[in-house]
Amino acid sequence: MTVTPKEDGEVRKMKNKITDLNDHLFAELERLGDEELAGDDLQSEITRAKAIADVSGKIIDNAKLALEATKLQVEYGSRQKISLPEMLEMKSDAKRSV
Fold this sequence. Notes:
two-stranded antiparallel ribbon
């Protein structure tokens, strides 16, 4: 679980997963595809999409680093039980079949 400090110093636990990021990215793509969006509203949405893409890139880079660290633990035989970083786990309510 990711932790972030609040302004008052209290630590808040984040429950977001990569699947949540995927949902946000597709929601933004749908907003950009809105044919009724034009002018200043369209420009605002484009600016917002760029900001979301920038932050998303950082989140993805962080997830890649966490996954690489987990791979190294597995490769070099960590004695602890090894599991995927929480941010990479599927949502518990997600139903996917392979």
